[in-house]
Amino acid sequence: MTTAVIPCGGRGTRLAARYPDTPKELLPVAGKPLLQWTLEEAAAAGLDRVVVVTSPTKPQIAKFLPRYARDDSAGLTIDLITQPEPRGLGDAVLCTRDMVGDDDVAVLLPDNLFPASSGPAIAPVLAARRATGLAAVLLAELPPASGATGRATGHRRPDGLVQVQTVAAKGSGTAGLAPIGRMVFGSDVFEQWERLRSALSPGAELDDVPLLHALAARGGLVGVPLSGPFYDAGVPEGYTAALAALSLA
User: Fold this and answer.
1) Any idea what DSSP says for residue 158?
2) In degrees rounded to 5, what are phi and psi of residue 41?
């Protein structure tokens, strides 16, 4: 079994100045909120259970989900849990530990948007996890220091996947493949994130990059090269690009 986790508890600071009254996860593209795009992707990939992690400052998400579940859920079971403070992606996933149990965890970031015509972006990542038994992450080709993630190094495997060897810190690295917001882990990821959290200074965020780097260093991470477009809709220029491309699709 695999449970999808959709983190929505972050501050969304890069879009907040432009859209102060709407959580970024509910900003519309082609008539649908970003969160709905992600829920539909999970359903299209065959996942039947989703945990949405929200924030006390985003009551709109809790209001949206019952309407979606009633009208458009495509059979998804949707649970909601609150992340008390925005302390990073790892902290958001750890909030779901009791709900997920022994399932694999598919993490889908709603501000990474993929055209539905390309198929569910999480599907090949799920397939890579099932085929290899390793953690898997989607990789996109990005220009130097672009985006909110560092670059990955590794080598192509005979099955077409990338055996990831290192993941650089966010905002660093030359042009190349970078992990983006579609990842699948075994249930042991909770213990790994707990160990990383225990080493943090008080108040520091629990990020995904140290986890990905640690997995890669011991041969436990494969990458799935993205074959189509994606939009980083969590930044103004990415959201504008998504509106332009997908509203006309």
Assistant:
1) T
2) -65, -45
Query: What six digits make up the tokens of 143?
Result: 């220009």
Length reported for the chain = 249
* Domain boundaries along the sequence of the chain: 2-246
Q: Is 185 exposed, middle or buried (0-12, 13-18, 19+ CB in 10 A)?
A: buried
Q: What is the pLDDT of residues 127-147, one digit of tens each?
A: 999 999 999 999 999 876 555
Confidence of residue 149 (pLDDT cuts 50, 70, 90): low
Q: Look up residue 95 and give its DSSP letter.
A: T
pTM for the model stands at 0.95
CB atoms within 10 A of CB 232: 23
Please, what is the Cα angle at 22 between 82 and 65, to 5 degrees? 50
Rg of the chain (C-alpha set)? 17
The domain made up of 2-246 is a member of CATH 3.65.10.10: no
